[in-house]
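Coiled-coil domain-containing protein 105: structure tokens wanted.
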Amino acid sequence: MEITKATIGSDPWKNASIRNIRLSQTVLNRSDKACELGQQLDPLPSLRDTSIQQSNARIHAYVRATRAVLVKLRESLLDTNEEIKSLLRGKEDLEKTLEHIRKDVILNTRSTMQRQTRPPREKDLDGADDLLGAERKHLLKLKRILEAQLRSVQKQLQVLDGARKRLTASLQERSRVLDLICHAVSAVRGAGIKDQAEKPVTPPVEPLGPYTPECARVISTAAEARQRSTNLRKEVAEAIEQTVKLQKAAHQSVNDGLTQKVAETVTMKQHLLVGAGETQMAIHRSQRWYDATEMALGYTLGPVAYSDLTTRERLDRPAVQVYQRHPGNQLPEAREIVKGGEGLQVSLNATARNVGLLRLTKKRVDDDARDKHRAALIDASVTRMRRRLGNHRWVINGVGC
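Answer:
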């Protein structure tokens, strides 16, 4: 627009208007440029909706990532619970085996105490005592090993319980932002979704992200605790299996030893009874010989009263008197009778002494056989008790055990 020169108005008046016109033109151009720039840079009218959608998308992404972390924490918690259950079952088996060991120690002590009631001559240490002593040492060693294993299991259970508590705390802390989203594992793993390209993975570890270092540390600690628990369960199972084998072997060895001792004792008792019978027969023979010798001595000495002698038995009978009328005719009859009587008396004394020795020997043999019988009964009762209580189905310090 071209401004004509004013002919009547003054120049200041005209210049003022021109300046206003130019200022208006400048402002107009600047406004047009601002509009063009605003069309390029200014937010659209849908900014509110766009901001809401972006915020919701960010929230959804964070919540979905947190749900993936939550699923991982939950799986770790479930695995930890299952490991605790398995370790508790192993602990129960270990306590049961340890109880059997304690019962075997008590049974060994009872067996030893019951064998102490044998007769004094049967209390000498034998192979059965050695087997009982070896069994006791073996059982005490196994008991110490199992008690150490039990302490390790209890300590590991405490570690697992601490890991479970930390997992539960992390799970509760992470689940605080999941009130408005499905917690199903299928929503994270993609179960039943055919067109899902790949399954979601655990987000990276970030201090302010869904997967915090604390969660990663808790999961790692729980995994290490579960691995140690698995190894410990294997060790406990092997220890229990080995202990049961050694325990049964020791128990059977003692039972076999006691059975063999009973058999040897019964055999020895039978030999003693045979010897006692032979000794009794020898006593009868010696007694008969004593009676016969005593009778022969009586016949040799003759009657006590001289008046009871017959004429043929007298030393001064007529035939002897007639024979002794010549000098040097002496008869050895009296000397032989005295000598024979003395010999018979010596034989009688020896026979009486032998009879006394035989009776003393028979008494000792009978006492020995009686002690052998009592010892065999006691050992047999110990064997029966061990077989009856070998199944461990009895209560310690209970009635009837």
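Residues 285 and 355 are 9 Å apart (CA to CA). The mean pLDDT is 85.

Cheers.
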